[in-house]
Structures are given as structure tokens and as C-alpha cells.
Amino acid sequence: MPLSRRSFLKLAGIVAAGATLSACQPLYARIGGPVETLSASPFPSLSPDDFTALSRLTFGPRLSERQRVAEIGLAAWIEEQLAPETIDDGPLDWRMHDFDLLKLDAATLYELGEQLFDGFDPDKVIAPLRQATLLRQVYTRRQLSEVMVEFWTDHFNISVEKGDCWYLKVVDDREVIRKHALGNFRDLLNASAKSPAMLVYLDNQVNEA
Predict the structure, then answer these.
(1) Closest to 101 measured CA to CA, from 114, 117, 112, 89
(2) Residue 39 — φ and ψ, nearest 5°?
(3) Of the chain's two ends, which shows fewer C-beta atoms within 10 Å, N or C?
(4) Which DSSP category does 175 fall into?
(5) Environment class of residue 158 by beta-carbon count within 10 Å: exposed (0-12), middle (13-18) or buried (19+)?
(6) What is the reported pTM?
(7) In sequence order, what DSSP letters do the residues of 35-83 get, joined into one string?
């Protein structure tokens, strides 16, 4: 979507500040903030099968997940995870507040890169994407969705080091992988096949056949 000059300059200021933070601020500086509120009950005991399942469906069975499974059962927990939009993700949302750069479309990312980053420094975009991925894996309550994001990211692999993929992958992560992570595979496959990041990664922009 085209931006007015006023809107562009305003956005450029916001993103420049965010890029500076991403470049200068170590990841551990983002780890403070809201934390899970846990009950004072003893560490919940799960059956071996439930513990194994929870280990595979999360990035490690945290106390909060173990308590939830002990409370409602594994099947109900999975059903809950399959509707991630119904799960409050406040602790993660707080930590994601300065990742505005990851919300931009490809054209704006390219234009901002040209204007702000002195001849395209890909790491100004790639580093925030990697940091955000790690923060999501650690802090999200929507663990199953994030596990599937990693699974599909590996399956539909795109190297950010190739060509314009350094900024196109930001959009692919948001509009292809995350959007369809728990959805219909055909829809995901179709979206990936049309993704500019995937097309560039597979050299389709130079395919003359």
C-alpha cells in the first residue's frame, strides 16, 4: 500500500529507532517484563505419555503448561492450543512491542532499507526477525502454533542470505507461515508457491521458460 510522504517519514522515524534498538540492545535486555502467574500448588505430576506429548508439542513443558494439562487434561489442552486466537498472550505481546519493522510490507521494507540503512545492511532486518522468533518460542502461551511455525519454516525453507530474501522473508514469515501454521495444508502450499520470498529463493524471477 503506497504511503504519503508524511506517513513515510513518520514510519521511518519509528523504524529507525527500532532498528537501532535491535542492533544495539542485546536480546537479554528484552527478557524482563510480565511473567506467568503460577499457582502455589506442588509441581504437577503428569503421566509419562502426557509428559512426552507435552514435550513434543511445546518448546519444553513449562510449569504453566504442566499445570494446565493437569487441570484440564491433554486432549482439552490440545483443543485449546488449536484455537490460538482465544489464548491471551500478554507476556509475549509486551516483549514484542518494539518489533514494528516486522509488521511492514515488502515494498516499505525495501524503501526504508534504502533510505535508512546506508546501502542495505540485511542484518538490520534479519536480526529482529531472528530475535522475535526466539522470544515467541520462549514466552508464547500459544506453544503448539509456534512449534508448527518452526516445522513449516523448516519444511518450506528459504535462506535469508539469498538475494532479496533478507526482507521478503519477513513478509513470508508473517503472511504465509504464521498465517497458515495451523490451517489447511493446501492453502499453505498455495501461499508458499506464490510467496515472493520463495520465488526469489528458487530463482523464478529469472526463469524465462
Answers:
(1) 112
(2) -75, 165
(3) C
(4) I
(5) buried
(6) 0.79
(7) -----SSPPPP--HHHHHHHHHHSSS--HHHHHHHHHH-HHHHHHHHT-
